[in-house]
Amino acid sequence: MLDERPLPPSFSGMTGIPSALMRALRDLNHPRVVRILLQSLGLTLLIFLLLGAGLFLLSRWALREYWGLGGMESDLAGAIIIVLLLLGGWLLFRAVAILVVGLFADALIDDIETRHYPRAAASAVGIGWRHGARLALASILRLIGGNLIALPGYIFLLVTGVGTALLALAVNAILLGRDLEAMIGARHPGQPGLDRGTRWSLGFLSAASFMVPVVNLLAPLLSAAMTVHLFHMRQKGSS
After folding, report:
1. What does pTM read for this prediction?
2. What digits encode the pLDDT tens for the residues 119-159?
3. Which end of the chain has fewer surrounding CB within 10 Å, N or C?
4. Taking a C-beta distance cutoff of 8 angstroms, is the pair 13, 194 a contact?
């Protein structure tokens, strides 16, 4: 078991990022993790479909009732609304995905800890889906608040071409690193957390993965699994 594998005295969270990533990738093949992945993706898709359908119908109704559009004009406006919904859905994917993964966080972390770090799993405090949902909601509020604060910077850096994307990556790296640490820390209260450099590196890799199509579907669970490994590998490496 990984829990019994000794780590070198020089281990640190920063140097452990590649190892944690490889272990997290291997975890994605485990049947229980695959089941959680499929459940979370299914629920995420359902939420998007319901939100999209609701917003589309509401928008079409508003176009007819308040702007007097009908027939072909209404269909054209509806097509524009669909495009805007798709763009908005891509931007909101991280928020919805984190909320959904929060519901499954306890089961996911418990599975990884039980298989790889049984001593830690035995002393863990189960957070349950309600606590996980509260953590996820707090994460979403921080996501919205942090990006609203950074909004003037985003607008100012638009002229640079890449500045806005880089600033968004940095801001969301800070937010994600904090949220991921809080998720595992809730199961192990009183345990020291990740150092600042490790937390930011974890958040940066996670935020970057959300920007890559297809990879972003795996990003929430992969990031959570990486956090579990980093947390316990660091604990062992510093002991």
Report:
1. 0.78
2. 988 888 877 777 777 888 888 888 888 888 988 998 898 88
3. C
4. yes
